[in-house]
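Re: beginner question about structure tokens

> Can someone show what the tokenized structure looks like for a real chain? I only ever see the sequence side.

Sure, here's an example I had lying around. Input first:
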Amino acid sequence: MSGFMIGAIIAGIYITNSSDAVHHALNLCGSIHIADKDAMKGSLMNTIAKAKPTRFFGVPRVFEKMQDKISLVEKQNYSFLQIILNWAKYYASDYHLSVMNGTIPKYGGRYWFAQNILTSIKTVFGLEKCKYFLTGGAPISHETKKFFLDYDIRLYEIYGLSETSGGVAFGDEQIKDFDAIGRPVNGIKFKIYKQNAEGYGEICIKTRSNFMGYVNEPEKTNETLDSDGWLHTGDYGCLDEQGYLYITGRIKEIVITSGGENIPPHHVENLIKTQLPGISNVFLVGDQILKAGPCSKVQYAIADGIKRANMNAISNAQKVQKFRILPNDFTMITGELGPTLKI
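And the corresponding structure tokens:
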């Protein structure tokens, strides 16, 4: 019997985007394990170790917590073991990155040996039987994807909404970069509405699984479903020549500069988080002024990281000019985060 691990944030409040993962697991005659209410406080890894899942789904925050735990355990290794682990991580990561670039490296038995070393690490966390690692519900950083590649784990993204009855686009082994989400499921149509010169616009979906409307909210229903049956997601992105979906953010979150340039916040936020991995959340707010901040040393370190992030900005308009540190992290209780931990 296979174990289908569902990375629930809080049991009973959020279990995947809908019940489709539960239904899929039951179709496979699989067992289902739901993390307890303290999952994000450290108990998740204990649940995983007991469940030994063959398939694992979690929102990005789940994988970030796993990343923190694995990193902590790794730092406790002796120097000799760390050298062996780094060797294995190099070949695992290089193998997957080469596959993404369309080549199969010839390592002889080195990749096989690296896999066996990393499997021993996975066993500690109950992940040795897991074949598929799936994530969705919110954007996931390049850093987290790369971290798990080092452990011979490739994260596949799922895109879907409650209004589409679950996932409508899935990642696959042919994806060439970390920005691509995946390709539409057979029978599901995508189009980019009001696309600009670069091909970006609102993502629209047409499928028999689209919902019929919001209960007692005809105006909201008409805004979301047009007369031709296309569901307007409110997400901003594009489709490439191979049909892969890219998402840069929500239309309502797009920052428009005085020069008329549209800036997707997610891209800028990811640049900063890449340079400053110790930061929990980054939120681009345009030209608003936020008042808060810690000591001058922390301010200086963050300012230096933002300078490095600005060096990779696509244009001057996308360079961060000012920042403020909020006194508290974003949480569901205080209203900054939704059930899928999106801002």
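Each token stands for a local structural state, so reading them left to right follows the chain. DSSP finds nine helices and 13 strands in the chain.
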